[in-house]
Amino acid sequence: MSCQLNTVASCSCMREVKECLFPDLIDENDVSETDNSDWEDWMKEGREDSRAARRHCSRQKPKPQSWFQDSIISLSPSKDLLVFGYRDTVAFLAAKWDEQESRGISLKFNIVWSGVLALEEKEQITTITCLPLASQKKSSHGSPDWTCVIVGFSSGYVRIYTETGALLLSQLLHEEPVQRLKCRTHEPRRHAGIPEQVEELTILYPKALVVIEGFSLYQALRACRNQVAKAAASGSEFHQLSPLTYKKWGLNDQDVVNDYVSCGLIAVNEFNQLRSTSLLGGHDAAARPSAAAASLYVATGVAPYVGFFYAVDGGGPPMLSDVAMAVASKLRTALRNQVSSAGSRYLGGWLGIGKKSPTDEQQPPPRIEPATQLPISICSDKNSRRARDLYLLKELKSLIKDNITNSDDLQRDIVTKLSVIRTAGIRQQGLERVLTVRYMDHDSLDDILSSMLRQLDSHEIAAGAVEEKILHHYCHLHQQLLRTYRLLCLLSEGATVHTQDSPNNTSESLSALLNAPVSEVEEAMSALSGYRATRTGVRVSFMDKSSMNVTQFLKCFHGNPSSHDNVNMEILPIMLNKEVSVEGQLELGAFLYEQALAGKCSVISLQEALQKSGIQPENLFTLLVNYWLSKEDWNFTATEYLYAILKHLCSMQGQEDAGGFSDWWRIMRTACSRTTNIASALPAALVGRSVSNLVEGALTKPFNSIPPPGEQPKSDSEWLDVSSDNELWSLLLRQLHNLLFLCTVFRSKPHLEERAEPVSLPEILLSVDGVLHSGRGAITELVAKWVAKVGATAKAVSVALRGSMDASLSESQVETRQDSMSMDQDAAEQQTDETLTNQEDSISALLGRTMLRFPHSLAHDMVLANCCWEYVVQWNKDLEAVVYVMQAIEHLKLVRNGILQHGVGAMVWHTFFQEKFKAAAYLIDKVGKAPKDRLCRKELGISDHRSLRDVIGQCCVLLDIIRESQAVKDNYAEPETDVDMEEIPVYGVVEDAWMDCQGPTPLVELAIDQRPTNYDLVSHHHQLATVLHAILVYELKSVRPLSLYDSKGKNALFTDLHTHPVMPYPEVDATVTDQRLQFLSKLISAAVRALPTKAPQDGATVSVPAAYDMMDVDTGVTQSKGDDDDAPPSSRGGRSSKAAATLARLDASQWYGAAMVLTQAWLGVDVDALRRQHVRELYCSGYDRLAEEVLLTVSDHSEMGSQLLRVAGQRLAHAMLQGSSISNYVSHCSTKLISWLSSMDYTSLRVADVPCEDTAILVSHVINQLPETHEEYDLAVELVEVVHS
C-alpha cells in the first residue's frame, strides 16, 4: 500500500515559535536564514515579557533536537489555526494566503499571538484542541465563523480562548490533570435502528470523564465572546458569565485509562435493556418497564486493557423514595453552594475567576462536583460468582504488586485469597500471576501449590468440571517443575556430586568412545589445538551457580492441555514454551547442562533429574545442542560428557520411536551448519554421528576393522552398512574440517616481508550454511577478504599461489608441488592441520597449505581477481583510502588469463570508475585547472586534488589494461606480459564437499560473461584520462579538457566501453587542433620544468620544484614528497637526491612519451614543433645530454638551429654579466655580435650557469642545424670562434 503526501501549507516562522516556547535553546548569535524584521513591535515586546515570565519555570532544559516533539501541537480541522504549546506558554499561528508566492504553496502560517496561559502556581499545559464553530443560521455558508482554542491544564482547569488569546471561559471540572480533549459533531438519525447523536465535548481525567453538551457550550462561548468584545471596546474589565453545566462519570474500575472513544447513544431495544440490567445490577436486579437510554464509552489502558462503560441517561417515572432522595441531595448542594459563595468574597463565584476583594488575601479552592461511578461491563456467567472472583483476583494482584519481598505473612495472604476464589479458571489466573513473582522463592511457591492441591483433593471433581481438572493438572505440573528445579539447584550447589574418574583425553580413548578411526580423531584434535593456539589468552570459564531463578525456569515450560485427564500419572509430560527467546533458551541450557559438561556434577545424577522432570526428550536435546554450540572453547573432556548426555537423551526417547531420531539428527546437523562456532560444531558432529550410528544400528563393524583405501574386503560381511544419515554426517564433518582450517588461517598473523595497506574489516565469521548459500565463489571471496585484511601485497599473493616464494620456480620445485597436489586429499588435509600452528608463518606458507584443501577455489587468477574486487569495494566505501585503488590495480595486473583480466577490468570500470571519472572530467573542465580541495570534497567526495590525481592515474592504468587485453584477444597486438588469451578460465568447479553451493553468481563467471569492449572507445577514454592526469600532476592552468574534442568526440565520451558510438574523425577543425597543440606544449614545458634545476653529484642535494611529485612509470602512481612540501629532497620518503633526480628525469621522459602518443591520435598537431620545444626546454634547464637525444628526432633543422642559437646567446650574455673569462674574448668581437648578445634576455633560462664546454657543444649543434645560406649562419660561426677561443 502506498500513498502520496501533498503539501497544503507551510510555516516559515518556526524559529520564532521556538524562541517563544524554548528561549533557552536560542543562541543570541544565531541568525536565521529568513529575516522577519517586518513584525510589529507589540508582538516582539509580548514575546520578551513571556520569555522573562517563564524563565524561572524551566527546570529541565529540553534537548535542542527534540523541541518539536516535546511541544503540544493542535491544528484546526478547517486548517485556519495552528497552536503550539509547551509547559505554560503557547503560540497561536493563523493561516493567510500569500498571493505573491510563486512556488505553489500559498497558504502560510504566521504567529498572531503568544504568551503565558498559566494562572495557578506550577500549572502546566497538558493538552490543546482547536475547535471551529459555525453559525446555526440557515443563511450560513457552512464554513466556520471562528475558532476557539480549548486548553487543559495539570491543575484540572479547562480554559477556552479566542484566536487572539483572549480568555473566554475558565472552569475547574476535576482535581486531576487533564489528559484528553475530544469533540464530536452532530450526526442525524440515518434509520430507525440508530439514534441521533448530539454534539458534545468530552474531557478525560485519570479517574473521571467530563461531558459537556455541545449546544450549551456554543451558546456560552458566543455570549462570552460578545462580552469580551464589548469590554474591549469600552475599556472595562470582562467578567465571566455563569459556569458550564456538565456530567461527570467515574472510571474507578479501570486501573489506568490512556485513551477513550465516545460512541454516543446506543440503540435501545428490549434485549439490550435486559442485558444491561443484568450486567449492571446482577442476578437479582429488577428491570424497569421503560428502556433507559445509555451512552457507551470505550476506554483503553491497564487492568483491563479495554473497558466498556455504560452511562444510563434516563428511564421511567421515578419512585417516591427516589424523588425524596433527589430533593434532599439538591437542597444540600444548594446550601453548600451558597455558603461557599458567601464565604469566598470573590466576584467570580465558585469558579474562582474575577476581581479579588481587597479585604481577603487567600482564595478558597472552588467546589468540585463528585463523579458518578459507572459500573464497568464484564463478561459473567448466570450468577455473580465469577464477578466476585474477578474482584478477588484484582485484590490478589494488588497484594502482589504492593509487596517487594517475600514473607510468611504474604504467603498466607496469597493462599487465603486463592482459597476463597471459587471459579477454577480465575483461580488458575491467580496462580499464574503468583508463579511469575520474581521475589518468591522455590519453597514458598511449592507450599502455595501444595495448599491448592490439598483443597482440590478434598472433594471429588465432577466429570464435567473441565476447568477444575485443568487447574488440578496445572498445579501438579508446576509442582513437578519445582521439584526438577530443586534437584538441578542441588546439583549446581554440589550437594549430590558423585565421585567419578576423570576421562582420559587421548585420541585412542576418544576413538574407542566415539567408535571413530584414530586418524580422524587425531586430525580433529590437531585442528582444534591449532585453532585454539590462535586464541591466546582465552580460557573456558564456568559459573559457580546459574543465575536463572525459579520464575524464569517456570516460564520456559508449559503442559499439554489435552492431558488434563491424566492427572494420576506419576510424571506429567512437559514441553518447552515456544515463546521463549533464543537468549532464554541458552540461559536455560546453561542451567541444565553447564555443571555436567564442566565435570562439576555427576552426569548420572543429571540423567536421573532429567528423567523425573517430564520434560520432553526432544526439547532437552534441542537445548543441549544449542547451548553447546553457543560456547566456543570446549575441551575434549566436555566432548565425552556431551556423548554421555546425548546417549541418555536418546534412551529417554525409547526404542519404540526410533524412526523419529532422524529428525533429531537433522536438527543437530542444521544447528552445526548454521553456527559460526566451528570449534564447537566439529566435536558436536563427531558425537552426533557416533550416537546416531549407535541408536539406529547402522554400525556393524568398528571403524578400525575397515580396510584401507584401495584394498578390497575379504568377505561381504566386512562391508559397512552406511545409512543416509551417516553419509550426511560424513559430509558435514568434511565441511567443518575445511572451515575450521580457514578459521585458523584467518585468525593467524602471517609474517610479511612487504606489507600493503591493510583493509579495516570485521572478524570473518564462517558457517557451513553461510558458505553453502553464498555461491560457488564463497571460499575465494573469503580468502580475498582475508588477504585484504592482513595487507598482503599482490606480488606476495601471486608468488604464494604459484607455489614458491621466488618469482621463478625450478623444475624440481614444480614437480614437487605437482606431486603434492596429486596426493590423497585426506592425507593432505591432515598434514596441513599438523603444521598450521605457527603464528609467524609466511603468507606463502599459509596460502600454500590452504590450496591443498581448496585446489579449485584458490586458483591463482580467481584469488587475484577477487582481491582486486575486494579492494575496490572497500575504496568505494571510503573514497579517502586511495591506496586501496592502487592495490586493486596491482592485483589485476597479475591476473594471467587475459579473458578474466579483461572482464574484471571492465566490471571495475563500469561499476566504480565510470561515473566518478565523468564527474571529475566535468569539474576540471568547468574550473579550467586542478580543482581546489573544497570542490573535490563537494563534487566528488574525495578529500583533495592529490587524491583525485592518484585516482585518475589509476584510471589510466585500468583503461590501458582493458585496452591491451582486448587488443591481444582481437589479435591486434602481442601481449606485453605472460597473459594467456587462448585459455578460457574454468568456473563453477568447487571441491567435492561444497558441490551443493547455491547463491550469487561468482565474480569469475560474471567477468567471463562481460561483452567485448570497443578498442577505439577505450583508447578514446584513455586519451582523456591522460589529459586529466597531466592537468592534476602538473597543476596546469587555463586548460579545458573537453575543448580538445569536437562534438562527436564529446558524445562518445562516458559511454559504456562495449558500445559502438560514432567516433570522431582523426582530423578535426583548426580550433580544436590549436587547443590540442597549446595543451601539449604546456605539458612538455611543465614536465621539463619539474626537473631539478641542477644535475646532482653523488650525495649532493638538488632543488626540486614545489609542484613536483615523483611518479612511478609502471603504475602511474605519484609518490608525494611528504607532509611538508618545503622539505629538502633528502628528507622526502628516505630517497637520495640522486635517486630523486633520476626518477624526475624518467618522469619527464614518460610524460613526453605520453604527449607523443597523443599526437599519434590527434592528427593535425605539429609534432615537430613539440619536439623543438622539448629540446629548447631541456637546454634552458641545463639538461644538454637529454636535449641532444631528442634533437635527433627534429625535422625542421633551420628553425631548430635558430632557436638553439638564441639559447646559446642567452648563456653567453649571462657569462658576460658574471665577468667570466669568456668576456675578455667577447670584447674583441664585432660590434654586431656584441649588440646581439646585449639584446639577449637570459632570465628565461632556468639554469644559466652552465659549463663553457656545454655551451661550445651547443653552438656546434647550431652550426650543424643551420644551412650556410641562413641569415644567422655567420653569427653562429662567430659564436663558435668566441666559445672555442
Automatic annotation (TrEMBL):
It comes from the Eukaryota. It is found in: Cytoplasm. Residues 1128-1138 have a biased composition (Low complexity). Keywords: Cytoplasm, GTPase activation. The keyword Cytoplasm applies. Pfam families: RAB3GAP2_C, RAB3GAP2_N. Its main location: cytoplasm. Residues 812-836, 1115-1138 are annotated as: Disordered. Residues 620-1267 form the Rab3GAP regulatory subunit C-terminal domain. Residues 67-390 form the Rab3-GAP regulatory subunit N-terminal domain. Belongs to the Rab3-GAP regulatory subunit family. PANTHER family: RAB3 GTPASE-ACTIVATING PROTEIN NON-CATALYTIC SUBUNIT, RAB3-GAP REGULATORY DOMAIN. This is Rab3 GTPase-activating protein non-catalytic subunit-like. It comes from Priapulus caudatus (Priapulid worm). The gene is LOC106810605.
